[in-house]
Amino acid sequence: MAVTRYFAGSSARRSGAAPDPRVRLLGVWPKPLIRHTVAHGRSALLLGECLATDEELREALSHGGSLCEAAGSAASLSGSYCAIVSQDGQTALATDLAGLHRLWYREGSEGIEFASTPLALVRGSTADLDPDALAARLFCSDFHTGLPGGSLHKRATEVPPDRVLLLNGASVSLAPRNPAWNRTLFREGAEALREALETGVRARVSGANTVTADLSGGMDSSTLALLAARYRDEPLPALTYTDPFAVNDDDADYAALLASRASGLAQVIVKGDAASLPFTGMDDVPLTDHPSLDTVIFARDRVRLLPASGASPHLVGDGGDAVLGAPLTYLTALTRRSGLPRLVQETRGWARLRHRPVHRIMRSVWRASRTTYAETLTALAARLEGLPSNGFRGNAPRVERNIVWAHLGPSAPWGTSRARATVAERLRHAAESVDDAHGVDAHALRMLRRHAADTRLFADIAAHSDVRVAAPFFDNQVVAACLSVPAVERASVFQAKPLLKAAFAEHLLAELYERRTKGDYGACEYHGVRRNAARLRSLVEDSRLADLGILEPHLIKAELERAISGGYAAMAAIAEVVSAEVWLRGLDRALALPAERSVVLEGER
Predict the structure, then answer these.
(1) What residues contact residue 264 under an 8 Å CB cut-off, 6+ apart?
(2) N or C: less crowded end of the chain, CB within 10 Å?
(3) Could you give the CA distance from residue 585 to residue 483 in angstroms, rounded to a whole number?
(4) 172 and 166 in contact (C-beta within 8 Å)?
(5) pTM reported for the whole predicted model
(6) Residues 479, 319: Cα–Cα separation, whole Å
(7) Residue 125 has pLDDT above 70, yes or no
(8) Calpha distance 533→535 (Å, rounded)
(9) Contacts 24+ apart (CB under 8 A), 56-62
(10) pLDDT tens-digit profile of 534-592?
């Protein structure tokens, strides 16, 4: 946990003197994740995995534009980190492009305080919790990606990844941040992706004492493991998790195939059992910035990461799905005349894959193509208010229901009428500020930042097990390379992750990029619910969400009993609610901040 405080304090305001330009980092940060540099009269503190060279940093800091532009440029170089840049009493803060590393700020008694976690600013107090914001995040996932009204804490405001925070004396402002990528051809994007991933992996593992990597059998983690093995003198421990409760789990078979073909990998099989089922051991999960779905699989994460304890780094493929692909709304980009032949092919492919009528998928595509993101949020508000009071869930999700710009969360039908009305109002307010956020590329970026927020929490949880997670797919240069290619070219029903295949099929094992299946761990959730039925019943019997007026407890209880009995249940909603219940209890037990340890960044006087 870390706190950074900008002293534009009371003494400067009283005397009229220039504000003190010092920036102090308080709390506990691993030393390798702190970098300090001074160039051209500007001081920069970089928090995270900054892989840029000193020359690249100097060039970014010497940017001829404003301090905000310099901070945005400095935070967009190779790696994934926040940049805090100071000059002449001003400080500008920017996050990485994906938002894997976040910053929050608040106005304190001594000036403006900012931190890498909101818990540092609110001191873990439930009095600062905004219950309506928690309801908003439960009822619509887009509040996780920067919609106004989604900040969980009343006194802590998040710096969005597409903004730069400027502190000038006692004033605070958010400035727009220029995009860090331009449109390019598919082949050029693939080449940029290969260079960026190779750079990111090489910089992390070359010369490191201990390195491990996930080897799930999927494209993303396997690509990173194979790349990392190139830069190690000894075989790279590659972790493959197997679960006897999984159904149609062919991940292990693919992982074994890759390990047998790559001499640089030393496969480590990690076997799960009943003690690592979902919903097990949740009371031991560390407190995170906001509720994390990794709470539900905490026991599994702890078991599968055990061989990586002490490794620095442990490479994971998180983020690959989001940055390499695109949401199903990519189909709307094909509704122009020139795209119609491919639209017919793609919709037919999805219809065969999901066993759905072609005309229903096509109808959803045309409907979405004629609806804006703002209109979607407004429609969701009306739908949220009109949900029946019995918590009706409707039919199982189908492919055409995902061809939308936003959707309600799985637990929304369980909301109280008051909470649903409040969130509906926030959705309408948010719809007024998203005029420039429409289109499939904007949708893909929102999904990417939601995944980054989730991975950030996973990395925090893993750190408590002495595992330093590295997720190169969230690196700035990887994000820029992928987003430079239009989303419609990054996705197809006929080829999983075509950009990744184009980048590496000729350089790594080609069969890796021909896989069309994924492991299914859904059955594990039902086994876990039954095994942990007593604890789950206890959580919903004494529901914090019900106490806050967010959810109707009898609806949650009915769904939980359906899952325990083995019937089809809204398992995603159960996991979301349980994660929030555990998080709220953790907030109640939050401890004081660790002892102060500061790093002083001196600006020009």
Answers:
(1) 226, 229, 230, 232, 235, 236
(2) C
(3) 39
(4) yes
(5) 0.91
(6) 10
(7) no
(8) 6
(9) 61/37, 61/85
(10) 999 999 999 999 999 999 999 999 999 999 999 989 999 999 999 999 999 998 887 44
